[in-house]
Amino acid sequence: MNDYDFRVSKPGKDVDSDDLRDYIFYGEKESLIYKRNSEGTGLIELTNNTADIVHGFDFAPVFLIYEKLGSNDYWQVNTLTGSSYANTINEKRLHLVNDNYPTISKVTFRYFIFGSPLLGGKPRNNLPIEKESFGFLTSIKGKEVTSDRVEDFNLNSTHGNLLYMGSILIQVDHPGGTNSAVEVSVPNPLGYSCVHLASIDITGNGSLIPNNFTFSPGMGALESYEVKMKPDSITASVTRAPDFVFSTAQTSYFKIHLYNQDLDRID
Amino acid sequence: MENIVKISKPGKDVDSDDPRDWEFHSNYPIINTAFIIRGEDDGTDPTDPLKIHHGLGYTPLVMMYEEYGSTGEWANVPAYRVGQPSFSTTASDLDHLDLYRYSTAFKYCFLVFTSETSIP
Description:
The complex is a heterodimer. Chain A has strands at about 5-10, 25, 40-45, 50-55, 60-70, 75, 90, 95, 105-115, 135-140, 155, 165-175, 180-185, 195-200, 210, 215-220, 220-230, 235-240, 250-260. Chain A is mostly beta strands. Chain A has a four-stranded antiparallel beta sheet with strand order 3-9-5-6, with no helix packed on it. The two termini of chain A are about 35 Å apart. Chain B is mostly beta strands. Chain B has no helices and nine strands. In chain B, strands 3-9-5-6 form a four-stranded antiparallel beta sheet, with no helix packed on it. A three-stranded antiparallel beta sheet of chain B has the order 4-8-7, with no helix packed on it. Chains A and B meet through strand 2, strand 5, strand 7, strand 12 and strand 14 of A and strand 2, strand 3, strand 5, strand 6 and strand 7 of B.
């Protein structure tokens, strides 16, 4: 036990447990905190232009982007696709672009930039943060709770973080052959489009891959797995090109973790 | 009466039942990383996946970021891709994740969350 620590265990679990799954909050571990202003989160619509979000850190931080493509009414996690490096971050700014224009007329992005560096060992300059008259702060292990740096905290009520609200499991049975896309929808238990992260078991063997992706092994074969988030429903989508590569039936599982922040609302 | 600790967002009622108004709630885990694993692959042995040790003993939720080239530009990596870095977790090995490499050096950063994500 450290001299200074703050832990909250789940109901019925020991606060001295060694199992990290037993905790609501574990002060020795780093959480994801974002600034509650445009440097930390925002909504942006792009057509054939780009946008740079200056984040104010002097390191490349962890980030998360969601997108609505064209006239779609659902959100998806934006990740690297193919060899495209459209949306990236460096030590100055997050770069957003609609790289599919004009095929896709516009893209709406929701972004989160967290105070955790992607590259370790980089010296950081002090970064003043707003401190209000009332707040609740816990610093990460080895950092002073009086620090003025966003990245030194794992809980800071003057900034934003993500609370895990639960997860849902969706099974998608794809028959293979000539059927190219199968979608399964379930009601959204939160009633709004929320931040989410997914793990996908594409072959039913328990090995997991993260979030949405498209896999093209060549010769026209295409396989894609997507999570589509709407206020009233969450959809798991499996698309498999009707060729010899994907001719057999396949069951996939989507485990989708839901967090409390609303993708359509800034607060 | 249930005992809870709750912190609302600035300007929000701490008695609100709307999760969007909460900054902390003792019934709902804050997103916590078990480990942040940073490293660099030199690109000399892209054939077999590199075993990255996390030692949790269960399948955690993981996110991966990649710096491409030496540009200082980082991207969020989705999953396995032909000829480019990616990763997966393996049901048969609960203490590691597999990093798929390629023939060019690159830097990576894994966020290994405390959340379990195994499929029942």
